[in-house]
Write a structure and sequence with these properties.
The chain is built from one helix and 34 strands. It is mainly beta.
Length: 325
């Protein structure tokens, strides 16, 4: 019986995923002149390029700019939340930061366009792991999804929670707090980045390494620079050249690139002989370098450029939308 129930639950979950995928297709931004629209994975236009600007879709809605103000459209291009906000952000955890009046306080909208958190905040960040960093006349705080203050703090900067840790800064020193507002990693670093894959890049004196969530240095501070782990790999820089290491600190791909981007979906853009191509997680060439610019892959597509031509490619380097090179 447990096996049957589990299989039934799996079937329901898969059905929900397929249902959601059918009605919320993956769309990609395209540019036509100074306007923005969206195409599907086949490169077919779904939403014509008619917006002054637009963000990527997030939780089924995309922030667009119309006549200088922000609103949100659905996957069919319908304006479901009117473009009447001078400042706005993307949806995250069913909350989007918005300012109702120029120079006014910020609050958070729900996907129907109603105020889930009333606009009373002087500063408001994105929601992450159920909380958002905000500031009012009384000082800085973190609030929950209903707008209730979880705790207040006196840090100069407080970032979003990532893996139960939030990056904070006080008098130029970096550290991390937990979800109760307690110091989880002492503020003793000259610089730090948020946690990802259980690791955070920190700079001690001159060089940087990676700590775990308890603050223990697990990858020695031997790097000129590095970025947070993505897809199980962290980009590092030594002597001006970029390479990649894994979460154990092993340099999987040696520092031989003048420029490189993060790994995503198993591939990373790198510069080879003045042009950009893509390598796999073992450092093998996956897409030959022929682009002047390239972004990381998202949902099987990567935006690339050659000269003024903008296109999307698939993981085999084939043009999915745009100009043939």
């Amino acid at each position: 019986m447990p096996v049957i129930r589990r299989s039934g639950l799996l079937f329901v979950l898969l059905s929900l995923v397929l249902f959601s995928s059918c009605f919320n297709p993956v769309l990609f931004r395209i540019y036509s002149g100074d306007k923005v629209g969206f195409v599907d994975r086949k490169g077919e236009t779904v939403i014509p390029a008619e917006f002054k600007d637009a963000d990527e879709f997030s939780e089924g809605l995309a922030l667009v700019v119309i006549d200088g103000k922000g609103g949100w459209i659905d996957h069919r291009g319908r304006l479901v939340i009117p473009a009447e906000f001078p400042v706005a952000g993307k949806f995250n955890q069913r909350r989007a930061m918005a300012v109702a009046e120029e120079g006014g306080p910020a609050g958070y909208l729900d996907p129907r366009g109603n105020w889930a958190v009333e606009p009373v905040w002087l500063k408001a960040g994105e929601y992450s792991e159920g909380m958002a960093a905000v500031e009012d006349a009384q000082g800085a705080a973190y609030i929950d999804r209903r707008g209730r203050v979880v705790f207040r703090h006196d840090y100069d900067f407080a970032g979003p929670f990532e893996q139960d840790r939030a990056l904070v800064v006080k008098e130029g020193r970096y550290g991390f707090i937990n979800r109760r507002g307690e110091v989880a990693v002492p503020l003793e670093y000259r610089f730090a980045q948020p946690f990802s894959d259980g690791r955070a890049f920190v700079v001690t004196d001159e060089m940087g390494g990676f700590i775990n969530r308890r603050g223990r240095m697990v990858i020695p501070a031997d790097y000129d620079n590095a970025v947070s782990f993505r897809d199980g790999r962290a980009l590092f820089v030594r002597d001006g050249m970029a390479g990649f290491l894994d979460t154990r600190g092993k340099e999987i791909i040696p520092p031989v690139y003048r420029w490189a981007g993060d790994f995503s979906e198993g591939l990373a853009p790198v510069e080879i002989d003045g042009l950009v191509g893509f390598i796999d997680r073992k450092g093998r060439i996956a897409i030959k370098s022929r682009f002047t610019y390239a972004e990381t892959f998202r949902n099987g597509r990567a935006l690339v450029m050659e000269g003024d031509n903008i296109s999307y490619i698939d993981k085999k380097g084939r043009i999915a939308w745009g100009d043939e090179f």
